[in-house]
Automatic annotation (TrEMBL):
Regulation of activity: Allosterically activated by ADP, AMP, or fructose 2,6-bisphosphate, and allosterically inhibited by ATP or citrate.
InterPro entries: 6-Pfructokinase_euk, ATP_PFK, Phosphofructokinase_CS, Phosphofructokinase_dom, PKF_sf
Binding site for beta-D-fructose 2,6-bisphosphate: 534, 591-595, 629, 636-638, 696, 722, 803
Name of the molecule in the record: ATP-dependent 6-phosphofructokinase
Subcellular location field: Cytoplasm
Catalytic residues as annotated in Swiss-Prot or TrEMBL: 215
Amino acid sequence: MAASKPQMKIAVLTSGGDSAGMNAVVRAVVRIGIIKGCETYIIREGYEGLVRGNTHSQDTKPLCKTEFTLDYQVAIPQVIDNLRFGYGSLLKNGEGDIDEQGIATTKTLKGKYIVRVGWDDVRSWLSEGGTLIGTARSKTFRTHEGRLAAARNLVLEGINALVVCGGDGSLTGADVFRQEWPELISTLLKNGSITSEDANAYAHLKIVGLVGSIDNDMALTDLTIGAPTALQRICEAIDNINSTAISHSRAFVLEVMGRHCGWLALLAAVSGGADYLFIPEKPPSDPWEEDMCQVIQQHRAAGKRKTLVIVAEGAHDASLNPIRAEQVKTVLSERLGLDSRVTTLGHTQRGGRPVAWDRILPTLQGVEAVNALLEATPSTPSYMIGMRENKIIRIPLVEAVNMTRAVAQAINEKDFEKAMSLRDPEFIEILGAFKATSLLDDSFKLPADKRLRIAIMHPKSLLWLRASDSVGAPAGGMNAATRAAARYCIGRGHTPLAIHNGFRGLLDDKIDVLSWLRVDSWMSRGGSELGTNRTQPDVSLGAVATQFQKHEFDALFLIGGFEAFTSLKILEEARVHYPAFHIPMVHLPATISNNVPLTEFSLGCDTSLNSLVDACDAIKQSASASRNRVFVVETQGGKCGYIATMGALAAGAVLVYTPEDGINLDVLRNDVAFLKTRFSIDIKGEAEGRLVVRNEQSSKIYTTEVISEIFKEEGHILFDSRHASLGHTLQGGIPSPLDRARAVRLSMKCMAFIESQAAKLAKQPEKKRRATSDSAAVITIQGSLIVFTPVREMLQYADMKNRRGTGTWWSGMKDLVEVFGGRTALIPS
Ligand code: ATP
């Protein structure tokens, strides 16, 4: 097949400290680049590889370029032209060497730092930690000579577009390189290193930055690639430490990474239920020893058997004197007499397989990076790809770099207020949430007449929902949300009333007041501490209203899935008959199915995706180990394909079946054709496994077993097939830190919503209070916004029959699964 002139030659490098998800970036850039008609290269060892370039030009030919004849047309021939060049698998195998300057290199690739890669060279890279293409901290690139050599190497290799994935330093380097580029080209022309044709052809460097950093320290983006995995590692450590701390009634001081940014420490403190926190942006009031001891003494006096203090690596006091974990430990031991220990997590935070979100985020951002390069013109700025809530965004690189530097500068100038104001709003909110949920003091208390009795419930179903319809399940983060609400209530002087076992429990008077200590360990607990129960269909709304009155509820906080949404709708509609329902009512979506209308995320989905990815990684490995095999994996999710689709994207599945799209014979025929093509162009003799994900309710006829049998039958000698159902494992046990942190943040917002709605109602005469429809709302995440949407308005976005939302944001992700799996490229539609 004749190759046409590439659209662009894109090179991708990873730089600075490694982070989980960098390999997913490389995979995404390479595959999308190829699909869009580009040639794709990797640059080994970060900027150092760019400076060194390829010294042995005779070695630049591919290690292997498998030729095959296909007697039919494929959809995107570019994929076949760029199937594999052999270096990708070499890098994955980790062959190593160290050069005279101590830079890691490989024996086979000695003298070769800019390497062409193809579609299959990045196969299975999604699940690999660290960066397979190597990273370095390059002193030479900081010099003008170094950058001149780098520019020359790019021109010599014909590369006109660069993707840099790294932290703020790496992106600063990218910005410097971009700004200098015209001058570098004219110097190269003057000194005869490049021709005038080259100088014209490469007058403009297209460059885009992706933030790969465990610290989450880049301004203007919510989340950096690698931060969720590092946070996961920290929380696993905290959960382990907690049990031993309780056993011995000890204090633990945990030092976590973060030189200039306290994000990891803050999120770990919120998700791990810490007692005290030291971060660079917000030093404690002086003297910190007294402040800390007072807080911890209060917690011990309330009955806590363990103490957890989190210290960011770069923590300091208000005069910029470093605060070290050992110092904190000494203070706890000497002043409070606590048996105290220090745990420094160090590099374990960087390592390990990426969590689901560190596969999804780099994949989506990698796509956006290639699009930004293809759309770039000499007049457009170079972009950094970021994320705001659930929206992938482009931010001018120079703005993000300047803003990030401004935070460090403000800290150096001891202007901590400015440092905090430059962090994104989520950071500030989470710090507020940490204080509200960890401190035991009276300074936040409201006057007695403003205090409320707030009922908290994890409902499964109400009234007309039949027991058999009720498929809801506990979701990771429900308990964390309840803990946050209860602690907030206590801090404000409200009464947090736990209703156990849903509406059934309400009718049975299973209601009690939550105490500060009782909810202490709920952050890390899976399932539902309040319990959910299937309500009898013959329960009357009048009885529910009577209970509301009897227990004097001033507000209701529902944490649950589609059933909670339906229950809220019913209660709001019943306000015409029952005055007891004229109180603020709010629903926080929590369901692994993510099927509540309008909101883009529910609590529990992140935990569930992580469980799915863990299971799929193990299955994929076993599929590769046996022989050419297609594994069909069944997921939960009811009639909503979210978990199957996003799980397929994160696990690197080649196909996904959802209830929304269904399955028919035409689809299956094409999918079988794809699998045959795909297996026939694999390297012979090398075992390959592939995953197909199917939601449990995608089709009544084409069950997981049937599909697997069809694949097996049609695969003949090319591949066989097995199937597995993940079932309840997807409910995930221990909630993920992202679910816990989101639970705390959204729960705080729900409490503020209740307070403001209650204040509005309090203006009406007590006996005649009439709540407006906006006082019964669902907290929803919509793009970059968090919005309280009245439950009435939610109905227009609900498919009540199928118990899911309409117009979901993730529906296009199914196509992306098929793009990355190669289905789109290999089978003409
Ligand atoms: P991490 O967040 O893990 O520290 P980082 O990207 O911030 O990652 P740095 O060591 O600061 O890591 O930067 C990585 C590389 O980027 C440096 O080794 C250097 O090659 C390049 N770089 C950083 N700053 C500049 C600069 N001002 N000019 C040119 N190159 C730079």
